Amino acid sequence: MLVTNLSDSDRTWVRERTELLFGGDLVVSRDVVHMPAELPGFICVEGSERVGLATFMIEGDSCELVTLDALCQWCGVGSALLDAVEKAAAAAGCSRVWMITTNDNIDALRFFQRRDFRISVVRPNGMEAIRKLKPGVPSNGHYGIPIRDEIELEKSLAGVGEGWRVV
After folding, report:
1. Global pTM?
2. Which of 55, 70, 76, 122 has the smallest C-beta neighbourhood within 10 Å, fewest atoms?
3. Alpha helices, DSSP H only, in 23-159?
């Protein structure tokens, strides 16, 4: 597995993955519209196949992880991509990484909490505002759970990025 910087030649694939996973080419968090295909990020490749993607946005001393997509679970792809984002954020002077998921995304909540992310904000019924910006968001999500709330998780970057290199 190799993690590399997202290149211009990857942008069409990023757009396709975003449309597949999020029902369009945009992602909304905290009422902010993101176009993942235009953001910085990382691709994880195994041989000649793309097996994962992460996009992020740095603003001030914070880094928002906008998307994280591992095409195979339990293979270390998500962890490798998250590690690359954390190190890039630390190198850019960020003190924290944060991300948003929804109340139905139990697998994401498990994944991030196991990697030292903490729930920092819960926006009950936050998806109502999101649906105004992106009406195609379904009512029900993973495991048939109604999608209602935004859950924000964050991680301090103290000590991250020492002795690393992304190719």
Report:
1. 0.89
2. 122
3. 77-91, 106-113, 127-133
